[in-house]
Amino acid sequence: MNDKVIIFDTTLRDGEQSPGASMTKDEKVRIARQLERLKVDVIEAGFAASSEGDFAAIAAVAAAVKDSVVCSLARANEKDITRASDALKQANAKRIHAFIATSPLHMAVKLRMSPEDVLEQAKRSIRFARNLASDVEFSAEDGYRSEIDFLARVVEAAISEGATTINIPDTVGYAIPELYGNFIHTLRSKVPNSDKAIWSVHCHNDLGMAVANSLAGVKIGGARQVECTINGLGERAGNTALEEVVMALRTRKDYFDLTCGIDATQIVPASKLVSQITGFVVQPNKAVVGANAFAHASGIHQDGILKARETYEIMRAEDVGWSTNKIVLGKLSGRNAFKQRLQDLGIAVESEEEMNEAFIRFKALADQKVDIFDEDIIAIMSDSAASEKAEHYQFISLSQHSETGVRPKSTITFRMGDQEVNSEAEGNGPVDASLNAIEAKAKSGAEQLLYSVNAITSGTQSQGEVTVRLAKGGRIVNGVGTDPDIIAASAKAYLSALNKLHDPSQAKLNAQMTP
Ligand code: KIV
Ligand code: ZN
């Protein structure tokens, strides 16, 4: 049997279905580029029929990505499949992913269809998709809770119609590793043409077992594709975490004896980018990508690590892209040193213009902050990618006063279109006062769903990274701002969110609003 596990990343589709994690077209392209650097085999860029915005985002990802297969989800009907195919027109390599539910509950209650009608629709849709693409995946939604003999008939028919990948999701996160692995194994044995397709697993994390279930699907069931997301992002408790699957396959190669094509040194940059764009903070003790994943606090552990790192470490931080958090650059560093550091961090700069703009930001930061860490550079590059085009709202300056017993006041100057505006307001705290001052002029009327602050590196000299999530007219956007001054970072984050609401080309309905 083939020993390569295909890594299918669905951060931009299933991950985006996480409430509040909706991404704009440009953000999807930035993440897709990073997924390509990570060398994922397949990028599921969205669900083309769900909205005009998602269609445009898939088309943009398809045009930008060269090395990975780009995929769109579609319900198993001709209209959705045609939309998926149209959105993928510019892809170097495209996949259409059609799904229909096969569990008794979903068929009776959600679809209101008989099992025979579901079987026919699955066949018809795969036949139709195969006329539009040679790479077609079929998913049996709620597959794990389906009646196995019926599911085997549906899968056999899908393969006969030309499906090249068969995915059996544990849609509701109900599975147990051994049972799920056995289910895939038994199902494959019941499908006479099972060797004509790649088998895939797709697990949700409701009981905290998505990664374990996926690995059992591979080891016991013989699946050779794992569907996963960066940081395990996804609906409810999330999906299978890509970084955990990849590092389990690598670290325990003695057990799995399988390979995958991922460049693991790109894992942490991918994790940080997804966290920054979605505002979903990674818990410190998260495996592989959590801030404490390689931190050793106890004296006994530290002593052991100093003697031989294998005493307490099964993976090396640098192998998954953690920098050693050393001071890399400062005020006196030149353009060449900056350029070299970007290369070392695996950050691609698309044009000389982007480089100039990033270097100006680096110099500005070095004026404010003595030591510049790798994390600061990653943040600078995220900011410069986000601000490539002239934005409607631009931060200029801010001053604020807060004192015990006195209501804080903030004065802010920012650009709104071609006007420079000054505004002053009070608030419960200095951040509230600053955002009130912006809102007094911008008058967006947007609802604030989230405000969070994170230190980019450790210690109080760190830059603050602020996320503001706003909702308006069925859209949800995340704005991110970084600055050593967290009040300024907050104002930048708010303005960044307003820019996304303002830009019609980024219009995208909340992923939960799929018709
Ligand atoms: O969880 C699920 O069943 C899915 C399918 C649409 C693949 O995401
Ligand atoms: Zn799913």
TrEMBL record:
Residues annotated as binding Mn(2+): 14, 202, 204, 239
Pathway membership: Amino-acid biosynthesis; L-leucine biosynthesis; L-leucine from 3-methyl-2-oxobutanoate: step 1/4
EC number: 2.3.3.13
Top EC class for this record: transferase
CDD domains noted in UniProt: DRE_TIM_IPMS
Region Regulatory domain, annotated ranges: 394-515
GO molecular function, one term: manganese ion binding
Domain Pyruvate carboxyltransferase, first and last residues per copy: 5-268
Entry-linked SUPFAM superfamilies: 2-isopropylmalate synthase LeuA, allosteric (dimerisation) domain, Aldolase
Transmembrane domains' residue ranges: none
Catalytic activity: 3-methyl-2-oxobutanoate + acetyl-CoA + H2O = (2S)-2-isopropylmalate + CoA + H(+)
Pfam families given in the database record: HCS_D2 (PF22617), HMGL-like (PF00682), LeuA_dimer (PF08502)
HAMAP family: LeuA_type1 (MF_01025)
Subunit relationships: Homodimer.
Stated family: Belongs to the alpha-IPM synthase/homocitrate synthase family. LeuA type 1 subfamily.
Name of the molecule in the record: 2-isopropylmalate synthase
Source organism per UniProt: Polynucleobacter paneuropaeus
Highest classification ranks of the organism: Bacteria, Pseudomonadati, Pseudomonadota, Betaproteobacteria, Burkholderiales
